[in-house]
Each structure stands twice: as structure tokens, then as C-alpha cells.
Amino acid sequence: MAEKKAFLLRLDPAIWTALERLAQSDLRSVNAEIEFLLRDAMSRRGVTPRRLAAAERRRDDSPA
User: How many CA atoms does the CB half-sphere of 31 hold within 13 Å?
Assistant: First the structure.
């Protein structure tokens, strides 16, 4: 598994509470929910993280 970048994030308590509810309903941790939401928002804007893009290219190039 690739190393993850750790950082401090300050959130409004109401946002934290909403994230906790979302995470519970999706059976994820709050951290995983935040990452999921960020990836979703980035994808909607046409942005793909480089590591993910490289993995998708390798998958597409592999023989079926």
C-alpha cells in the first residue's frame, strides 16, 4: 500500500458531524469518506491524481 500524506484539517463542527453521518451510512471511516468525496469532486472537475492515472493506464494497456 502506498504511503499516505498526513496533514491537519480544521473543520466546522457541523461539517464534521455531517461527515460522520455520511461515513457511517457508507460503512467508511471519516478519513476514507473525506478522501472519497475529494476524489469525486476532483473527477467532476476533470482532475485525476497522477498515481491513480498511472495505475489506470497500466490496467488499460494490459492484455485482456
Answer: 5
User: Which of these, 63, 45, 43, lies nearest to 53 by C-alpha position?
Assistant: 43
Given a contact cutoff of 8 angstroms between Cβ atoms, the answer to whether 49 and 57 are in contact is no
43 three-state secondary structure = helix
62 pLDDT more than 90:
no
Contact (CB, 8 A) for 2 and 51:
yes
Q: Decide: 40 and 54 in contact? Cβ < 8 Å.
A: no
Measured CA to CA, the distance from residue 6 to residue 2 in angstroms comes to 13
C-beta of residue 17 within 8 angstroms of C-beta of residue 25: no
> Mean of the pLDDT values across residues 19-48?
95
pLDDT band at 55 (very low <50, low <70, confident <90, very high): low
